[in-house]
Amino acid sequence: MRRSSAQGVLYGQAVANVAGISGSDLECMDFLNLEGRATAGRLAEVTGLTTGAITGVVDRLEKAGYVRRERDDADRRKVFITVVPETTAEIGKLYVPMQQAMHKVWSRYSDEELRLLLRFATDGYKGVLEATEALKDLLDTPPEKRADLKTPKPRR
């Protein structure tokens, strides 16, 4: 799992390099793809970055033509960030070889095995999310009040 995760990060970095953006900007764009559209505050929330850092990310992605800012029709003060489908589709093409390789791997499994793997991946994601939140809590604790940096306690 660690090798697969690390290789996924490296693949994403290679895609970002080809797209001319940073790996972290690409990850933020992926969150935008998952969210549909989001405010800078929501993007900061799901990535763990500060709103100031998100402003820089959005500025860079907008300049590169991958996202745009759109004012909310109901509340003109609210701004949503959305992906530009035409340009992000070009990035999507870079993932085709990986998708093809994974489909080849998945074709070797029965439906029952695939359901188990899906459950495993979903539960694993939830575990990583929980651990991330626990680590954020630890980082929000002043250093002098941190009991042990090596063992953040998971949220319940």
TrEMBL record:
What is this protein called in UniProt? Answer: Transcriptional regulator
Question: Residue limits of the HTH marR-type domain?
Answer: 1-126
The transmembrane segments are none
Tell me the domain of life.
Answer: Bacteria
Among the Pfam families in the record, one is MarR_2
PROSITE patterns assigned: HTH_MARR_2
